[in-house]
Amino acid sequence: MTRELLLPDAAATEAIGRRLALVLRAGDVVTLSGGLGAGKTSLARGVLAELGLPGEAPSPTFAIVQPYAPPEVRLPVLHVDLYRIDDPAELEELGLDEARLDSALLVEWPDRAAGRWPDALALSLTPTPDGARRLTWDGPAAWEARWRPT
């Protein structure tokens, strides 16, 4: 079931990421959809900050995969940006399925790997005319029981 929430500013977007971090586990995949500047990286930064990352997390656009591991964070996380992936076959080279065994994945631009993570919590951010962001989310029943951002 798709749900939505209005986030008034970037701080609220990051705060939702912090709340998500409280229930995130190794093996989880959270997909982050939305256009350029929609707030995907802000939400991921909130997750990483709550997990203990000191300072601001860089966008993984150029690195494609930015890993974080203890002691830097409490839970191993791969922050992934698939924007520059043109061929789904390139995903195999990233080793995401193997990494998922002991890490959580935060995946920006998941449309580049459509259908790859059917068990993911799918988050989508859309800017509104007044500068807010509309967050919509959908996920399997396991996520419904764990994550309630409102």
Description of the molecule:
This protein has a single domain, classed as Rossmann fold, CATH 3.40.50.300. A hairpin with an 8-residue loop joins strand 3 (65-68) and strand 4. The longest helix has 12 residues, at 10-21. Helix 1 (10-21) packs across helix 2 (40-50). With 150 residues, the chain is an alpha/beta fold. The protein has helices at residues 10-21, 40-50, 90-94, 96-99, 141-146, and strands at 3-7, 29-33, 65-68, 77-81, 104-108, 121-127, 133-138. The protein starts with a strand and ends with a helix. The protein contains 5 helices and 7 strands, in the order E-H-E-H-E-E-H-H-E-E-E-H. The radius of gyration is 14 Å and the shape is globular.
Q: How many domains?
A: 1
**Unreliable runs, pLDDT <50, ≥5 residues?**
none
The helix-strand sequence is EHEHEEHHEEEH
How would you state the average pLDDT, rounded? Answer: 90
The helix content is: 25-40%
Superfamily (CATH H level) name:
P-loop containing nucleotide triphosphate hydrolases
Instruction: Please identify the top-level CATH class.
Output: Alpha Beta
Q: Which overall shape is indicated by the principal axes computed on the Cα atoms?
A: globular
Radius of gyration (Å): 14 Å
Strand fraction: 15-25%
Secondary-structure-derived class: alpha/beta
Question: And the CATH topology?
Answer: Rossmann fold
Could you tell me the number of beta strands?
Answer: 7
The neighbouring-strand order within the major sheet is 1-7-6-2-5-4-3
**Number of helices in the DSSP assignment:** 5
* Biggest sheet architecture: 7 strands, mixed
Q: What would CATH call the architecture? A: 3-Layer(aba) Sandwich
Distance between the termini: 15 Å
